[in-house]
Amino acid sequence: MPTTLAITDFDRTLFSPDFYQAFIEAAINGGLLAPDATASIQAAINDPNKTIDLLAALGEHGVDIEAAIRLARATLAPNQFLYPDALGFLDRASAAATVMIMTTATGRYWQSIKLSMCPALANFHQITLSGNKGVHIKANLQRRAGRLGLRDLPNQWFDSIMLVDDRVDALMPLIGQSDFTLWHVERPLAKYQRERDYVGIRHVSSLNEVQFP
Ligand SMILES: [Mg+2]
């Protein structure tokens, strides 16, 4: 049976940014943050050119970060911010492929908090980068006897690799690589909307439309 490595993005692909708002509300309700302090943070969250480290932003407002994390863990449900199609997708993916969750972070601690809110993802390979995912994959790709490997997963070889991401710019560096399939998941109201179709990228509106080899 052909083997596949399915690499999926985290933020806005599996995980909803509604978490940011819920985290802020938990901090306000817990008395850690003044309600009127949130306008500038809110603007940064909504800025398509920024991926914010919410912990750093809250820290600048004098919020006790560890207390805010405890409050979020106490008041928000595990896996609550996974999109409704995420778990079904991961079930299909793990039946058909080796799954890796590859995420890009401005703040690694904040990213680790978000991932830890999703215990359903704990058993998958997880790696956090600080740069462009497609560039990283291209730089760490190995080809041997017609098979593909990634230095992040030593000694594992695949017949194909797929990357699923809400950002076209993460997928673009891999256009034209043989034995790759590239899936662009466009969430409603997502940042990073594309302006046109890209040859070599499949644009879908839900993870339910992503197919495995
Ligand atoms: Mg993303």
Core attributes:
two-stranded antiparallel sheet; binds magnesium ion; alpha/beta; 19% strand; six-stranded parallel beta sheet; Rossmann fold; 33% helix
User: What's the total number of strands?
Assistant: 8
Structural class comes to alpha/beta
Shape: elongated
Q: Give the full name of the CATH homologous superfamily of the largest domain.
A: HAD superfamily/HAD-like
What is the H/E order?
EHHHHHEHEHEEEHEE
Describe the structure.
By secondary structure, this protein is α/β, with parallel strands linked by helices. It has two domains: about 5-15 and about 80-210, Rossmann fold, CATH 3.40.50; about 20-75, no CATH class. The protein has eight helices and eight strands; from the N terminus they run βαααααβαβαβββαββ. The protein has helices at about 20-30, 40-45, 55-60, 65-75, 85-95, 110-115, 135-140, 170; strands spanning about 5-10, 100-105, 125-130, 140-145, 145-150, 160-165, 180-185, 200-205. The strands form two sheets. Strands 3-2-1-6-7-8 form a six-stranded parallel beta sheet. A two-stranded antiparallel sheet has the order 4-5. A hairpin with a 2-residue loop joins strand 4 and strand 5. Helix 1 crosses helix 4. The termini are close together. The model has no long low-confidence stretch (mean pLDDT about 90).
Write the SSE topology.
Elements: E1 4-8, H1 18-29, H2 39-46, H3 54-60, H4 65-75, H5 86-96, E2 98-104, H6 108-116, E3 125-129, H7 133-140, E4 141-144, E5 147-150, E6 160-165, H8 168-171, E7 180-185, E8 202-204
Parallel strand pairs: 1-2, 1-6, 2-3, 6-7, 7-8
Antiparallel strand pairs: 4-5
The chain binds magnesium ion.
Magnesium ion (MG) binds at residues 9, 11-13, 165-167.
